Amino acid sequence: MNNLKTWCTIVTAVFLAAGVRAGHAAGDAQAGKTMIAFCKACHGADGNSPSNPMWERYTTQDYQSMTKEPQKYRMNPVWPKLAGQNEVYMANQMRNFKSGIRTDHNMWWNFTTDLSAKDIENIAAYYAAQKPKSEAVSGTPAAKAGEELFKKGKPGMKPCMKCHGASGRGNEKVARIAGQHVAYLQKQLWAFKLEVRKTTKEMPPIAEKLTEAEIKAVAEYIAGLQ
After folding, report:
1. What is the Cα–Cα distance from 201 to 209, expressed in whole angstroms?
2. What is the pLDDT of residues 22-76, one digit of tens each?
3. How many other C-beta atoms lie within 10 A of the C-beta of residue 97?
4. Distance separating alpha carbons of residues 135 and 138, to the nearest angstrom
5. Tag placement on the chain: N or C end, fewer CB within 10 Å?
6. pLDDT, tens digit (0-9, with 9 covering 90-100), for 131-149
7. Dihedral of the CA atoms 21, 168, 198, 126 (nearest 10)?
8. Residue 214 is inside which H or E element, if any?
9. Which of 104, 63, 101 is nearest to 194 (CA)?
10. What is the DSSP secondary-structure string of 35-69?
């Protein structure tokens, strides 16, 4: 009986340990801080990348073209904030870039190519530990319409908050979108809508249902979330 108890205890411990490894990144934030020399050029030292005034000039046609042909925005690329992003989610996206599952013209130099598995975990841990800064809360009619979409969705489309959370902070499987740049949110929604980005099965059919105006509206609302 004692041997059986001991065996059960060992098996349980092994499964629990495996669950921790699978569900939680094990990165070293301090080590990651020493590895972001290239990352911070776009994403900022603290992951709160500055916006570019030129982004305000982008049209729907620009967003559509930047998901396929980068020439029109090579000089003014659109990058995301990484501060406060879920560590596991971020590490998975970096692995996607490294393997080629996910591509982006901003990553044309593919900074992830030479990163080891541990490097990726450490960088993800560092940026996840940084405090995110949201954009200004918008009170425009567009943002109000975006709030409706985010919280209630529309016929045939579930609300954004159902997966990303009421505050848009995401989790290990879906991105933190709260406080993200409006331009980046629009860029990604167009990428999903045009099926250029295929890292998730859920987003393309959702984005496909959004109109041009709705994409801009929901992006404007999400940018102000804390």
Report:
1. 14
2. 445 589 999 999 999 989 999 999 999 999 999 999 999 999 888 777 666 777 8
3. 19
4. 9
5. N
6. 999 998 999 999 999 999 9
7. -50
8. helix 212-222
9. 63
10. T-TTTHHHH-TTS-PPP-GGGGG--HHHHHHHTT-
What number is the average pLDDT over the span 115-141?
A: 95
All structural domains of the chain, each given as residue ranges with its CATH number in brackets, are 134-226 (1.10.760.10)
The 10 Å Cβ neighbour count of residue 82 is: 27
The SS3 assignment for 149 reads helix
SS3 call for 154: strand
* Residue 184: how many other CB atoms lie within 10 Å: 20
d(Cα 85, Cα 96) in Å, to the nearest integer? 16
CA–CA dist 179, 49 (Å, integer): 11
Cα gap 79→100, rounded to integer Å: 18
**CA 193, CA 145: separation in Å to the nearest integer?**
19
What are the residues facing 154 on neighbouring strands? 157
Coil, helix or strand for 137? Answer: coil
Q: Can you read off the two tokens belonging to residue 52?
A: 């570019």
DSSP SS3 for 148 = helix
Amino acid identity for residue 104 in this structure: D
Residues 6 or more apart whose CB falls under 8 angstroms from that of 213 comprise: 142, 145
